[in-house]
C-alpha cells in the first residue's frame, strides 16, 4: 500500500514539475511578446514578433499581433505620406499668396494717393484690413510649415526666463495699451534659468499675449513663479470648456476671434514641445489660464 502511495505521489510531483515548467515557458513567451510588441510600436521596421516557445496558443497570439502590426504599419505610412503632402501644400500656398498680396498692397498705396470720395476711402480701408488679415494668415502658415518640419531644430542655451519674459512684455506693452489692457505682472525675484531657444520662447510669449487680446474681457495677469511656471491668465466670459479644450488645435478659432488665424497657439505648443516643455490651458470660473513649464537644467 505504501509503495503505491509513493508511486502516486511521485507521479503527482512529476506532473507538478511539468506544469511548472510549462507555466514558466508561457510566462517567458508572454514577456517576449510584450517586449517585441513594444519595440515594434516604437520603431518603423518590417521585423515581426517571433517567440522561442512553440506553444500553439502563444504562437497564435503572436501571429494575430503580427497581422495587426502590418495594418498599423500601413496606416502609419499613409499618415506620414499625407502629413508630408500637407506640409508641402501649406508651404507652397503660403509662398504663392505672398506675391499677389504684395502687388495688391502696392496698387492700393498708389490708389490711396488719388483724390477719392469718403465712400471710396472706406472701401479702400476695408480692403487694406482684409489684406493685412491675409498677410497674417500667410505668415502664420509659413511659420507653421517650418516648425512642424522634422528638420527644424532649435538651438538651445541657458536663458534667464525672467529677462526673456520681461523683454516680451515690454515689446508687446504698446499693443496691450491700445486694447486698454494693463497687465498685472508678477515675476519672481529669483533668477529662473532654463535650457531654451530665445527666439522660440519670445514667440510663445507673444502668441500668448495675442491670445489674451483676442479673448480677454479687459484684463491680463502674467506670472512667473519660483518653480519656473509661467502663467498667462485673463477673464474670458465668452469662452466655454469645449472651446478651451480645442485652443491648441491648428486652424481652430472661436467665434469672437475673427482676426485669428487659429495657428498661434498650435505653433506655441509645437515650439514648447521641441524644447521638451509643456503647455496647457485651464478654464475655471470664467477665467482662462495658460501655463508654460520648461524642464529644469
TrEMBL record:
<dbReference type="GO" id="GO:0005886">
    <property type="term" value="C:plasma membrane"/>
</dbReference>
<protein>
    <recommendedName>
        <fullName>histidine kinase</fullName>
        <ecNumber>2.7.13.3</ecNumber>
    </recommendedName>
</protein>
<keyword id="KW-0418">Kinase</keyword>
<dbReference type="InterPro" id="IPR005467">
    <property type="entry name" value="His_kinase_dom"/>
</dbReference>
<dbReference type="InterPro" id="IPR036097">
    <property type="entry name" value="HisK_dim/P_sf"/>
</dbReference>
<feature type="domain" description="Histidine kinase">
    <location>
        <begin position="92"/>
        <end position="297"/>
    </location>
</feature>
<feature type="coiled-coil region">
    <location>
        <begin position="55"/>
        <end position="82"/>
    </location>
</feature>
<dbReference type="Pfam" id="PF02518">
    <property type="entry name" value="HATPase_c"/>
</dbReference>
<dbReference type="InterPro" id="IPR036890">
    <property type="entry name" value="HATPase_C_sf"/>
</dbReference>
<dbReference type="InterPro" id="IPR004358">
    <property type="entry name" value="Sig_transdc_His_kin-like_C"/>
</dbReference>
<dbReference type="GO" id="GO:0016036">
    <property type="term" value="P:cellular response to phosphate starvation"/>
</dbReference>
<keyword id="KW-0812">Transmembrane</keyword>
<feature type="transmembrane region" description="Helical">
    <location>
        <begin position="6"/>
        <end position="25"/>
    </location>
</feature>
<dbReference type="GO" id="GO:0000155">
    <property type="term" value="F:phosphorelay sensor kinase activity"/>
</dbReference>
<dbReference type="Pfam" id="PF00512">
    <property type="entry name" value="HisKA"/>
</dbReference>
<dbReference type="GO" id="GO:0004721">
    <property type="term" value="F:phosphoprotein phosphatase activity"/>
</dbReference>
<keyword id="KW-1133">Transmembrane helix</keyword>
<dbReference type="InterPro" id="IPR050351">
    <property type="entry name" value="BphY/WalK/GraS-like"/>
</dbReference>
<keyword id="KW-0472">Membrane</keyword>
<keyword id="KW-0902">Two-component regulatory system</keyword>
<keyword id="KW-0175">Coiled coil</keyword>
<keyword id="KW-0597">Phosphoprotein</keyword>
<keyword id="KW-0808">Transferase</keyword>
<dbReference type="InterPro" id="IPR003594">
    <property type="entry name" value="HATPase_dom"/>
</dbReference>
<dbReference type="InterPro" id="IPR003661">
    <property type="entry name" value="HisK_dim/P_dom"/>
</dbReference>
